[in-house]
Amino acid sequence: MSGSGSGSGSGSGSTEALPGTRSAPAADRGRGPVVAALMLGMALAALDGTIVSTAVPQIVGDLGGFAVFSWLFSGYLLAVTVTLPVYGKLSDTFGRKPVLIAGIVLFLIGSVLCAAAWNMAALIAFRVVQGLGGGAIQGTVQTIAADLYPLKERPKIQARLSTVWAVSAVAGPAIGGLLAAYAHWRWIFLINLPVGAVAMWLIARHLREPARKAPAVRPRIDWAGALTVFACGGLLLTALVQGGVAWPWLSAPSVCLLAAAAVLVLLIIVIERRAADPIIPGWVWRRRTIAAVNLALGALGLVMVAPTVFLPTYAQAVLGLGPIGAGFVLSIMTLSWPISSALSQHVYTRIGFRNTAITGISLSAAILLAFPLLPYPGSPWQPALIMLLLGGALGLFQLPLIVGVQSTVGWSERGTTTASVLFCRQVGQSVGAALFGAIANATLAARLSAAPTPGLPTNLDEVSQALEHPDSLTADASDYLRRAVDTAVDHVYVGAAVAAGLALLALVLIAPRRFPVIAEHDRCDS
């Protein structure tokens, strides 16, 4: 069946049975420079968070602003997330090449400004500028990758892009630490310049997009929709990122931000229904395939919070590892993920995109539920094995969905579709950070209030200090606190398993049995 109830996008529909794609023309054999440019562009975005994190002590020591340094990451995340739908629509309207080049230029301008920052407020503002460029890079690189390769070859480029993220997760902290220790923290931003310059040159010289007919009516940018989406996303993500951290969840700032975001959601619906060429077209949610993938990858964003945010704390507080050892336990997942992604085509060509993703997320849920069964305190190889298996399962889940949903739309809709998928995943991560942070805090608070051992921290603000200096506690108090952290992380992993279950439900109940893959026509050449 071809996926009843879901539009197939432009072009004639065909079932998912992965129709034989046409032979790559001679021009396709020169895709190497463009692929290199995509990998360099993705490296800019992938390295950004990891390379900055290890230099935070030096940055704070130089500029001050310890109380607000988390906005170095939150501000960048906000800008990337809320601009993804805008850049996706712009790339469908004006082409990928100008959007990607503009994004790289904006990212490099932000990098130069970050290197020149004179205080923490300026650095945070310039990180937002970087994020405005990062949104264009992340969404457009993924879209060009789908444009460049026929369906049967897309796992190759996706595996390469996954490898970029894997290498960045390992190399970023090391590079950031070396530059901060032996050069200056400002160099972590300046090294973006040569990387970005080479990527831009390769894109400008080698990427050739398919010729398109000039539109009868000049394209009109939905600026009202774009600005409203940006404002709504900014308010919502600010509430999620800062709630429970900068202010209590039920305080006036949280309530006001969430209420304003809700009002803007209604306003977005009104504006986009009236817009001639909306930034977020209604078909993104009316088509079952795209809606199901959006929801499933939004749930994946929640799932990813458990290992990326809470596993390092578990490794250091419970297992007693140092920062490097904790990073190694987490990075194990980045080794199996790209390998699984590259091999997933052998699965989905036999059982389909939907069934492959269902298999991957079902395995992920089981693996996440195995985490609370680990012994206390346990050995480092045990959570490392969990992460190795989880990376393999998630690679089997994510890549078939991205390749599959990109194959259900034509060139003119692929940018918007890809951006909607990435946007939902980013929002899922923000929601997950807030939700699981609240779960972990509630668990710790309950354990501390019921502690039979004296000398423990009296509030959550003192927990991190006690974990950093365990010698300040008695042996019994230290062991009790470690067990409390262990329990809190266990609850987070159970919550992540529930999120995986939600992704499974989205695929089972909403996604068509066979994705409505369409015939491929125009592709980018090089």
List the helices and strands and how they pair.
Elements: H1 32-53, H2 56-63, H3 71-94, H4 96-115, H5 120-148, H6 154-182, H7 187-190, H8 192-206, H9 223-242, H10 252-274, H11 283-286, H12 288-317, H13 323-343, H14 345-351, H15 353-370, H16 381-406, H17 411-449, H18 461-468, H19 475-509
Helix pairs in contact: 1-5, 1-6, 1-8, 3-4, 3-5, 3-9, 3-17, 4-5, 4-8, 5-17, 6-13, 9-10, 9-17, 12-13, 12-16, 12-17, 12-19, 13-16, 14-15, 15-16, 15-19, 17-19
Structure overview:
By secondary structure, this protein is mainly α. It has two domains: 416 residues, Growth Hormone, Chain: A; 47 residues, no CATH class. The chain is 73% helix and 0% strand. It is built from 19 helices and no strands. Helix 12 packs antiparallel against helix 19, helix 13 runs parallel beside helix 16 and helix 14 crosses helix 15. The longest helix is centred in the C-terminal third of the chain and has 39 residues.
Descriptors:
single chain, 526 residues, mainly alpha, Growth Hormone, Chain: A, 2 domains, 19 helices, globular, disordered N terminus
Assigned CATH superfamily of the largest domain = MFS general substrate transporter like domains
Topology order in helix (H) and strand (E) letters: HHHHHHHHHHHHHHHHHHH
For the sheet with most strands, the description reads:
none
Q: Beta fraction of the residues?
A: under 5%
CATH class of the largest domain: Mainly Alpha
Bin the helical content.
over 70%
The gross shape turns out to be: globular
| SS content category | mainly alpha
- Here the CATH topology of the largest domain equals Growth Hormone, Chain: A
Distance N terminus to C terminus?
36 Å
| CATH architecture verdict of the largest domain | Up-down Bundle
Question: How many structurally independent domains?
Answer: 2
**Which residues form runs of ≥5 with pLDDT under 50?**
1-15, 17-28
